[in-house]
Amino acid sequence: MAAKSAPPADARAPFRRRWHTAVRSWAPTVVYHSADVSDRDDVKRLFDWAAEELGPIDILVNSADINVKNRAVSQLSGEEFDKVMQVNGSGTFNTIWAVLRQMRKRKDGLIVNLNSIAGLRASPMAGVDYSASKIAMTALGIGIGNEEGGNGIRVTNVYPGEIEVFVSSASAEGAPIETKVIDTYIPPLDPG
Q1: What is the number of other CB atoms lying within 10 angstroms of the CB of residue 182?
Q2: Helix (H) or strand (E) holding 19
Q3: How distant, in Å, are the alpha carbons of 13, 174, 181 from that of 81?
Q4: Which of 32, 33, 89, 131 could disulfide-link to 118, CB 3.0 to 4.6 Å?
Q5: What is the pLDDT of residues 52-94, one digit of tens each?
Q6: Catalytic residues
Q7: Are 176 and 170 in contact (CB under 8 A)?
Q8: Residue 106: closest CA among 153, 47, 138
């Protein structure tokens, strides 16, 4: 049996080292703080931390959301429905509520809700839980935008369409979460 030879040296390694050094010299520092948006006390802690670390919040982007594996109402438990509503619906309210006072005081602010097409129309793929939570998010965005527009606060709901997603996490039982392929696929534009 012949001895294995060493793998060839990576010819791009010196370039990578120079690139990483260059990026570190100009890249901004990234700070983060984890929070459970469904927990109002946790959201308060998040925004207290943000005020101290970053200063006033000018722009809030709501992007936290969850869904469950069993989305059909015949398979959905009450606890699963409640959790999706707490994160997607109440979580949106909690984060908006946390920044409204300071935005009102400055008479300026932008709130962007990264919603879903399910916020405009329910679908079996999204499930009744997710659709209900995203329709709630739509109502929050429109309602708060109508109420707070006179205070210089703008609210935008963004409704991305359904996409095929590779889900790398697992369900609570440890089984892989299923994904479905969408029939309509629009390929990205070729920039070249």
Answers
A1: 13
A2: helix 13-26
A3: 49, 20, 24
A4: 131
A5: 988 999 999 999 999 998 888 999 999 999 999 999 999 999 9
A6: 130
A7: yes
A8: 153
Which residue type occupies 153?
I
Residue in the structure block whose two tokens are 């919603």: 115
* The pair of three-digit structure tokens given for residue 77, joined into one six-digit string: 């438990």
Q: Tell me the pLDDT tens digit for each residue of 117-175.
A: 999 998 888 899 999 999 999 999 999 999 999 999 999 999 998 765 554 444 444 44
pTM over 0.85: no
Cα dihedral value 161, 165, 170, 172, nearest 10: 10
Residues for the chain: how many in total? 192
- The DSSP code for 103 is H
Distance CA 30, CA 177 (A): 31
Beta strands in 34-146 (DSSP E): 59-62, 109-114
DSSP letter, residue 176: B
Q: Where are the beta strands (DSSP E) in the chain?
A: 59-62, 109-114, 153-158
